[in-house]
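Lecture 7 notes: from sequence to structure.
We start with the chain below.
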Amino acid sequence: MTIASLECTLPNLVHERRLQKLHGDLVAGVDEAGRGPLAGPVVAAAVVLDLDRIPEGINDSKLLTREARERIFAQIMTTARVGIGFASVETIDEINILRASLLAMEQAIAALPVAPSSAIIDGRDRVRAPCHCEALIHGDAISLSIAAASIVAKVTRDKLMAELAELHPGYGWERNMGYGTREHRRGLECLGVTPQHRRSFAPVKALLCA
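Predicted structure tokens for the same chain:
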């Protein structure tokens, strides 16, 4: 594989540049973390990169090590405009995980310190926001701004789950981040359901109904 072809597989600014020409300079990338876990909130981030100070190594958060994510997260937070949104466990159970994720993304856009001209949303669904919005499937692998948002959302949620793990020991949230690992399921069976568990998710609902 040549260097040129490798670069084509990395997130880039193609969509950001197009939207800048159409709608204005401030383009936000938006992504969320935490749709799949059995416990904890969904966290979303909106990031408007400073195109003159882009941290090196930005990529889909799932492809980065924890150390790399935390290093790039710190750089993003000091060079970019960032907004963060949350959807609680109660909200997830009330309106379903998809709608809760979109709500968290809307909150992240609203939390930006400056209103964006447009926003690129990771996935299939657009959100309600006071700017032009586009959905981009696999956006965290395509758009540099969405990849940056994926890092911010992931690191923010991981830190939150580590804090919740101290309040609810025995489930391994500091390691599994609330996902349904063997350790987490064993904790559920032995310790029961906490207020941070998503009661609308099948494995938790099954324990409550047993």
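Points to note: The radius of gyration is 18 Å. The longest strand covers residues 27-33.
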